[in-house]
Amino acid sequence: MERVEAEAVYDAGREACVEFLLELSARYEREIARLEARVARLEEQVRSSSRNSSQPPSQDPPKTRQQRRAEARAKAKSLMQADAERRRAGGQPGHRGAGRKLLAEDQVDQIVDHYPERCAGCGHEFSEEERAPSGRPGRHQLAELPPIRVIVSEHRAHRLRCPRCRRRTSAALPAEVAGSAFGPKLQAAVVTMTARNRVSRRDMSELAGELFAIGLSVGTVDTICQRAAAALQEPHERLVASVLESAAVNIDETGWFRAGEGRTLWTAATPTAAVFRIAQDRHRERLEELLGEDFAGIVCSDRWWAYDHLDPERRQACWQHLKRDFRRHAEGVAEQKLFGEAGLALTGRLFERWHAFEEHGDRQRLAREMKPIQTELRTLLERAGRKSKRTRFHRVFANKLLKIWPALWTFVSVEGVCATNAEGGSDVEDRID
């Protein structure tokens, strides 16, 4: 405002001046509130990391050497405080060993006996007659690869002349031989390393020469993979059907790049099998394409919006994702911080009861132990969901949980449903690392 304009307001009289000041004050208060909300959103974005959200670790902001050292010192200090008595490195007294078990004698290919050359006491040299097997010899087993070499067999199709009509007839090669220049075991090894272990076609071509002493071009490796894909189409369809017929399926999705373009890798998994699909995006339509129209089981997933149309009664929300959400709020301020800390404490108790259930297997006991946690969490969410200035940073999250409340507790009563969508084998990162 210019000085002339201010003087004009002043000359207009007391009432006009008061009204102008009140209007100006209200305008500034609205602008301050808007800027405060923007600063809060930006601060929350800065606090987001792989620890408190679904953000991958690769997108975490870089840290300076000083920050990394400070975090390492703080972590070391907390570990020392938690363990008042300093322990030596390695297994502790009473710890059950986890060494490599010896194979039974009938599973050993070769036994080599070793005898001492002379007595450790008097130096007497043992003769061949004295070298008899002892009752309990020391045992050490050594595993080694045999010399690896591809066996090349030449199949010759001979021609014979008929003694009656004098016509020449050539032999036909068996179908399993004529179809390829490489045997099924060699092709299976190539496909395993390229598909399961993600060795590139070019690297596989070099590896075949180094490991198997056979030349395979990059094009040959790709042909073998394409032939295997065609052969596995029918078993793959049966696998997909078995997964989608399960009572509970763990669903997850993550970013994926194909030919340099962003895609989404979807997975549907059970404890025994998993199906992967590379799709265009993470939208609801892709989920419906993955599950199909006839799916009647329970979906275990995170809270991505593509799952919002599912009936909460036929769904299980992943508690590991909820734990990250509560941690994010616990790193906030004021009422939001208290809300997050309370949620983290309840989540910790929930996982304790769940892991105990994995040991005892008594579902009625699990339901009894979850009852107070459910009551406390419901109270916490209802209080946080009220419209108030103090709850503006976390009430949306609280109300969303209340909206899908049954989906938080399906694992308590339904057999085969886990508290997280990773326990059934659907952890996508494990399959793409």
**Alpha-carbon Rg, integer:** 34 Å
Order of helices and strands: HHHEEHHHHHEEEHEEHHHHHH
Structural class: alpha/beta
Distance between the terminal alpha carbons, to the nearest Å?
61 Å
Helix proportion range = 40-55%
Number of strands: 7
Q: What profile does the largest beta sheet have?
A: 5 strands, mixed
Strand content: 5-15%
Q: What would you call the shape?
A: extended
Q: What's the helix count?
A: 15
Low-confidence region ranges: 425-433
**Mean pLDDT, all residues:** 86
Spatial strand sequence of the major β-sheet: 5-4-3-6-7
Outline of this structure?
This protein is α/β, with parallel strands linked by helices. The protein has helices at 3-11, 14-47, 65-82, 175-178, 184-196, 201-212, 218-231, 233-244, 284-291, 319-330, 334-360, 363-384, 395-403, 410-413, 428-432, and strands at 159-161, 168-170, 248-258, 261-269, 274-279, 298-301, 315-317.
Structural features, described:
With 433 residues, the chain is an alpha/beta fold. The chain has helices spanning 3-11, 14-47, 65-82, 175-178, 184-196, 201-212, 218-231, 233-244, 284-291, 319-330, 334-360, 363-384, 395-403, 410-413, 428-432, and strands at 159-161, 168-170, 248-258, 261-269, 274-279, 298-301, 315-317. Among the domains are: 180-231; 316-422. The chain is built from 15 helices and 7 strands. A hairpin with a 2-residue loop joins strand 3 (248-258) and strand 4. Helix 12 (363-384) packs across helix 13. Mean pLDDT is 86; it is low at 425-433.
